[in-house]
Design brief:
The chain is an alpha+beta fold. The protein folds into three domains: 33 residues; 140 residues, no CATH class; 49 residues, no CATH class. The protein is globular, with a radius of gyration of 30 Å. The protein contains four helices and eleven strands, in the order H-E-E-E-E-E-E-E-E-E-E-E-H-H-H.
């Protein structure tokens, strides 16, 4: 009788506790076999950044109306499409609508680069996109490089504790040929560039093979486009 009374009091006591407090998912009475509810994980961290240049580079910019501003520390935000200028007091932003062009010099790589707002490129009948292009070669037919971002999502699976935990921001680029007022994205395989080089494709292709030039090599590609321009003059 005493054992029965003790068991009844124990059950009543447990019931009272359950009524006045939140029940844990660890409680075996509400979570049999210890199957836990899935907990919300914090958002995954991100590797990489949205800037074309990881470090501030010394350069100059031209704003709308041909006003030149020299000797500035610059970096370009690919995602938001604006140029940032670092001053001793603050970081200023030049939006794309005011930006004509800019250039910088990388002391570590001993290399310079020149960029122009797509909207200010002459001899085009249609815009490829809003943004900036790096100028690789300018002539009757010109060569540019377009930079963009690609995000690789996290592959992490909590239940298996496997996969990459972070998102990754990758910086990508395409080379563009501007000819007859239109932009063409150049393939790294010559046979895929028939539309870009048009009637001169066969001669350009033969020139490339003869001189063992590679479309994926920037110096070679400039040479190919330079030769293409000589064909347009004929």
């Amino acid at each position: 009788m005493k054992k029965l009374l003790t068991l009844v009091l124990f059950v009543i006591n447990i019931s009272a506790i359950a009524q006045v407090s939140d029940v844990s998912v660890l409680d075996p009475f509400v979570n049999p076999d210890a199957v836990l509810d899935e907990l919300l994980l914090p958002p995954p961290p991100t590797e990489g950044n949205v800037y074309l240049n990881d470090e501030w580079l010394s350069g100059s910019l031209v704003i709308y109306g041909s006003k030149v501003i020299n000797n500035q520390l610059l970096r370009y935000d690919i995602k938001h499409k604006h140029l940032e200028i670092k001053t001793p007091e603050e970081i200023k932003v030049c939006p794309l609508s005011l930006l004509e062009s800019f250039s910088w010099f990388d002391k570590e790589l001993k290399d310079s680069a020149y960029f122009v707002n797509i909207n200010h490129i002459p001899n085009q009948t249609e815009f490829y996109d809003n943004g900036i292009l790096e100028v690789l070669y300018e002539e009757k037919a010109s060569l540019y490089r377009l930079y963009y971002l690609e995000v690789q999502e996290s592959t992490y699976v909590p239940s298996l504790d496997m996969g990459r935990r972070s998102n990754k921001i990758l910086k990508k680029s395409d080379c563009l040929l501007l000819t007859s007022g239109k932009f063409y994205t150049l393939s790294k395989t010559m046979k895929n560039n028939k539309k870009a080089f048009g009637n001169e494709f066969v001669e350009v292709s033969e020139f490339t093979k003869k001189n063992k030039l590679k479309m994926k090599n920037e110096t070679d590609l400039v040479g190919i486009v330079r030769h293409y321009n000589t064909l347009l003059d004929n």
